[in-house]
Amino acid sequence: MNKVKVMTIFGTRPEAVKMAPLVKELERREEIESLVCVTAQHREMLDQVLDLFEITPHYDLNIMQSKQTLTGITNRVLEGLEDIFEEVKPDIILVHGDTTTTFAGALAAFYKKIKVGHVEAGLRTFDKFFPYPEEMNRKLTGGLADLHFAPTNGSKDNLLREGVKEENIYITGNTVIDAMNFTVDKDYIFESEELNGIDYNKKVIMVTAHRRENWGKGIENICLALRQIVESHEDVEIVYLVHLNPIVKNVVDKYLSNLDRIHLLPPLDTKETHNLMNKCYMVMTDSGGLQEEAPHLGKPVLVLRNVTERPEAIEAGTVRLIGTEEEDILKEANRLILEEEYYSSMSKAINPYGDGKASYRIVNSILHYFGFTKEKLGEFKR
Prior knowledge:
Layout: E1 4-10, H1 13-28, E2 32-38, H2 44-52, E3 59-60, H3 70-88, E4 92-96, H4 100-111, E5 115-119, H5 134-144, E6 147-150, H6 153-161, E7 169-171, H7 175-183, H8 193-196, E8 203-208, H9 217-232, E9 236-241, H10 246-256, E10 262-265, H11 270-279, E11 282-285, H12 290-296, E12 301-303, H13 311-316, E13 319-321, H14 326-338, H15 340-347, H16 358-369
Parallel strand pairs: 1-2, 1-4, 2-3, 4-5, 5-6, 6-7, 8-9, 8-11, 9-10, 11-12, 12-13
Helix pairs in contact: 1-2, 1-7, 1-16, 3-4, 4-5, 9-10, 9-14
């Protein structure tokens, strides 16, 4: 084999952020022919990341539709990739994490007997509906994968319990840390004038909350708690990056619009998001990725969910899982706002998710698997 033909497949902004540094690393290696296919499960937000990292896909399925369903996404990815695989015949495809693109991409490769590498493998909540549909997407992808790039020892242990052979698991760290080394700038000036106008010497809380399992009462409780937080603390400002889905946006607008020191902004691009996180005091979120990103910047995270597939940060002390009950949110937020020692213990805890070399390890692992190197190279340890 002269070169390994590697096709990277992704379709949403979170996937793109975490796959972009891997694409760049693949392109640097002489032993690899790197190809990129995007599904555009999310169109505009995906394109922002492609522009930021200067990635031009070789193939673009452009599947996004208004009011798209999980079934529709799955069907369009399967059908679109079938023709591409017939043409390209990659040696291995790489998918990331837990999106519908990820699962459908792995399934399409399996149907063509193409090897599958799963980046960010082994995360589990052990409840198939939390988060939905992500928990089953990543578990089913794990069943189809040949190479499992686990970010942590805990993720590796999950895979071993499911019967994955140890020789097919590589502990790499998380590629999002690689990405943040590119995006974060301590002297950053925002494109948003509203963000530039905020006094970051205050205790600025960055908030995201939009997951399906929080629709309805969960989002309402979060909003009511945020309202009380700013009313109780004059030195606090809140920046809520509000998902454009009307199911979320209408509730947030109802409870939080036109309130002093609460800034409701649409989702930001990746660079703006990472730099807002870097300037803020703490993060409150139901996102998975922010649980990895914020600790890298020394920002405590309150997770607005009842379960998480990222227990390592809880064990390290950088994250607290608090659910969506109004009283619980207030209690934990007030502790971080008022108790300096408690805040310091979370902000100075070691991030267990990476050292900025995950992409390097993943590419080395692929080359090892295809016989270009004789031994497994060093794994990520924290």
